[in-house]
Structures are given as structure tokens and as C-alpha cells.
Amino acid sequence: MDAPPDLLMVERSSSMAFAPGALVFPGGAVDADDRAIAGSLSHDLEADDAAARIAAIRETIEEAGIGVGISSMDAAMVLRLRDGLHDGKSFSNLLARHDAIIDLSVLTPFARWHPAPFDRATRVFDARFYIARAPGGQVASVDTTENIRLLWKSASEIIARCDQGEGRIIFPTRRNLERLAQFSSFAQALDHAGTFPVEKIRPWHEERDGEQYLCIPDHLGYPITSEPIRHVRRG
């Protein structure tokens, strides 16, 4: 019998400039080395998408010790990659040293979020979200620098914990969790991700019955597409 898939999330340190103390999916900024790796691989992806997948793979290793998208790699080797990244070594050199093979196809595009112009964000992000199955035989562990804990829970469980005050999630994360909570298996989530276009989501303000709402498009697979501004948590 299928069961809702558990999702890997990390809790950001309270010292972080963006979303301190929030539960987030592993990830981070694309760097020049990610772009170089993406450019060296054979694929038919758009360049920014390929680089973002490399960054997602690298950041998941750094933050959680999980080697998504790396073929023929055991847990010990993933931890060696992680140690090398924490020591400041480039991802490209580490991959070459360990004869690691990247497989970008295991990451399926799910969503893309970007701040709205009115947000006047101090950190302008273009966040691409991917879904992938965790490799077998690897155990996630927190990095204790940017993040202070990690958890595997279903989307519904994470939302419930946060609603009970046991965690904090910002607006894009809540919307993505609500979308993922619709599925009773990883296969369903994967099928769903291929059904909807991945368009840049830029929330907007809208007044309804005298109250301001933060809204997103209603054609991208999200079951809840608005929330009163007074309830919205941001970074």
C-alpha cells in the first residue's frame, strides 16, 4: 500500500541572514563551478537549468550528506565529498578525484519562485525546486553550520507541526508543501510534476472583501493559491 513520501527538510540556523530558523528544502546559490560542471556534461537542458541541478546536488551533499544524482556512489564516498566541500575544495575537482558520474535526469523540475517587484527584497532569488528520490544506503545528517537539524516527514506532517508552533515555514515553502501533500506516493508526485509547466512564480497583492491577500497563479498545480497578508511568513 502506498504511503505519502517523506520529505527531507533542514532547519536553518537563527544566525542566517535569510529565513533564520525556518524549515527549508536543502539548496543554495549556483556558483561558477556549478556552471562549469554543467557545461562539461552532455545533456539537452537549458544552461541555467543544468547549473541549478548541479547546485542542488552539491548543496544536498553539503547540507544533508545525501548524494542525489551521483551514480555508483556509496555513503562513505558521499561523506568524503562533503568533507572536501566543507574544506573549500571545488565540486568539480572532488567529482574528478572520485570518478563520480553526475546524472542530471534524476532531478525533476517542480517549481520556480521569484520575488515580486513590490517586495523590494534585499536578496533577490530565482529559486528552482526539483524532486528526486533519495539514494538507498545513505543516511542524512545535519551539517551543524548553516542548519541545526533535519527531519524526514510527510508534507502534511510538516505543515501540521508548523501550525502547532513546532517549526516555521515561509510562504513559498508552505505552498510547495501543500502541493506535495496531495500525493500518496513518490510516483504520483513525479507524474504531477510532469503535468504542469514550470513558470516563474511571482506573488502579487490582491484585495478581497477589504483584506489584503498574497496570491499566486492558479494553473500551476497548487491547491491553495492565496493567503491573507497578515498570516504570511517571509524570509
How many β strands by DSSP? 11
Report how far apart the termini are: 38 Å
**Structural class per helix/strand content?**
alpha+beta
Strand fraction equals 15-25%
How large, in whole angstroms, is the Cα Rg?
Answer: 18 Å
Task: State the low-pLDDT regions, or none.
Answer: none
The overall pLDDT average reads 91
The strands making up the biggest β-sheet line up spatially as 2-1-7
How many helical elements? 7
**Helix-strand string:** EEHHEHHEEEEHHHEEEE
How much helical structure, as a percent, in the residues? 25-40%
Q: What does the overall shape look like?
A: globular
The biggest sheet, with number of strands, parallel, antiparallel or mixed sense and barrel status, is: 3 strands, antiparallel
